[in-house]
Solute carrier family 37 member 1 (Oryzias melastigma), 522 residues
Amino acid sequence: MAQIPPGVRLLASLNKDQWYRALTFVLTFLLYTSFHLSRKPISIVKSELHKNCSAIITSRDQDPSSLLLRSSSDCSWKPFDKKNYKQLLGTMDYSFLCAYAIGMYLSGIIGERLPIRLYLTAGMLSSGVFTCLFGLGYIYNIHSLSFYIFVQVVNGLVQTTGWPSVVTCIGNWFGKGRRGLIMGVWNSHTSVGNILGSLIAAHWVSSNWGLSFIIPGLIIMAMGGVCFLFLIEHPNDLRTMNAQSPGVQSVQTKCWSGAKGHTQVYLQYKDNKTQSCDTELLLPQDDTCIPAQPVMVVKSGAEPSAISFMGALRIPGVVEFSLCLLFAKLVSYTFLFWLPLYITKAAHLDAKRAGDLSTLFDVGGIVGGILAGVISDKLGKRATTCAVMLLLAAPTLYGFSMISQFGLGPTIGMLLVSGGLVNGPYALITTAVSADLGTHKSLKGNARALSTVTAIIDGTGSVGAALGPLLAGLLSASGWDKVFYMLMTADFLALLLLLRLVTKEMTSSKSGPISPVELKKH
């Protein structure tokens, strides 16, 4: 008899708890990948909205007299054919990111009070519609700046449904044990989405840039349907479903230690011991359940209200990490929205090649996010890990601004290193740190703060995300070196905001590796 393949043996060894954890991990990864995939096209299309057509005109038009009648921006897309095109493009970025920042503060509060699956599905479908609408501007020959700004504002608002929802789901399913590593790997969806969005947009940018938006828009809408069909918000949802299956009777009560008052189910076993499903992994491992006898159940506590905005701000560390993320995200989103255009100007590449090359920054970001998670798990010092990477990032950005002028090889190397150091702290704060603070011991078991805390941290960071591209648009008019000085200053300010927490971590006797035992305390 042939030996069973090792992969099959591995799959057979997984219990139902591990299967559903894996499903939630992969599904939320793909869902947020589609969010970033739909945000990326604008940075690729910028170089097509305004481009120098002299070379095209020279190759196609042999009449010198007709050449004098044309400007170098004749093939640009109105209204971005003017000399202030950088300011107009920056305004478009600012419209999206400002709406995103404002909406994020509200999104977390709303998300705590609505079913996450439905809330996230509605947001993804709406985002897909408005992403496609931007692309339809090309197909229907729309040249109104107000149209594009309106689409960006509304899209920014509906995209705020994504981050608090997926972080809450992943926080519900995974405890604190190895959270940095797990979320470091999981957070690579940001870079994967950027890479896929760049490749998809770059494929059509020179022939039909409308499709650079329409295809990502259709993808996020399709993923919204997948979210509606398969997303499981909390393990207790499955426990309830299983307890109500034929052959198993249950007595239910409200147990408010879980998020949103998920029903707590008690089962009676053959040894006449009634125990909570919280003592099981996720679902009964065998068929030892017998019909339950009447059991008196005492409510474990009163239902807590969802945490208020000010209550979330009082959680130790929320303010510092939020302000740090403001500057860290300013740097990251400046690269997200302006890197392809910078490569086009500095390396003299066309839009497609610049878009493809810019994906290396996100490849570095994947490695940086995972390394930040692993190191912070090992040391038990989240703030210190972020501070060291921020300290290294500033001189690396200066090196990138210098080396990128010396050819393709050095540019590739610096893109990878810069991506890792810039996105490492950003990834750690928005995932593991947010989840840690959302389940902080000061909350006394009230898990309903996770979405609100996540929204406050990411919302504050989004203020920086809005300012970065806007400032880049203004400063780049007088030279790209001014943009890099702004980015280095932002990194140093982010570092300064963490100094109190770093000092506390270094002097704390409790600092150390995060124990897997903490997983059981979640």
Summary: Residues 55-62, 64-73, 248-303, 515-522 have pLDDT under 50 and may be disordered. The chain is about 70% helix and 0% strand. The domain at 13-51+77-237+307-507 is CATH 1.20.1250.20 (Growth Hormone; Chain: A;). The longest helix spans residues 408-438.
